[in-house]
Amino acid sequence: MRGTAQPTSGPATSAKTSSDALPSDVPRVPKALDTTRFQQDPCSILAPAQLQMFKLPSAGKPRKEPSPYCIWSDFSGPAKMGLSVTIATERDGLAGLYRRHKDFKVFEPLQIEDYPAAIVATALDKRPQGDCDVEFAATDKLSISVKTT
Fold this sequence. Notes:
Elements (H helix, E strand, L loop, with lengths): L5 E2 L25 E2 L1 H5 L7 H6 L7 E3 L5 E6 L6 E8 L4 H7 L6 E7 L2 E7 L10 E8 L2 E7 L1
Antiparallel strand pairs: 1-2, 3-4, 4-5, 5-9, 6-7, 7-8, 8-9
C-alpha cells in the first residue's frame, strides 16, 4: 500500500550507526519498518488521499542530502501550512535524540501505535502556533521526522 512502511524481518536501512547497542533509556522498536523505497523516493511516503486531507499539493519537493526528505507547502492557498518528512538516515535513530535531549527546548517521549517517538523543538515551543516536529523510530537506528509549519 502506498504511503505505508511495512514491517520487515531483514535489514531495514543503510543508516549509519555509532554503535550496535542502544542506551538503556532508549525504547526499542517492536518490529523494524522497511524504509528502503521511501529513502529512494521520499515524496512517496504520503498517499494522495493523505495530502488531500491536509489540502496540500500532490507534488512534493524532494531532496536526498543529508537525508532523504520531502516537503509539501501551501502557505497562501487553502492548506496554509507546510509539511515535511525526513527519513533521518544520519542521526542514529531515537538514540541520537535521547543523547541530545537536554539540548532541546521540548523533548516529550511518546508512542505512536507501538513505535517509540518524541516531540522535539530546538529553540521555541511553537505548537500553539501549529508548528510541531515529531520523530518516530522506524528501526532501532533510523527515525522518521514529520514537521508541520
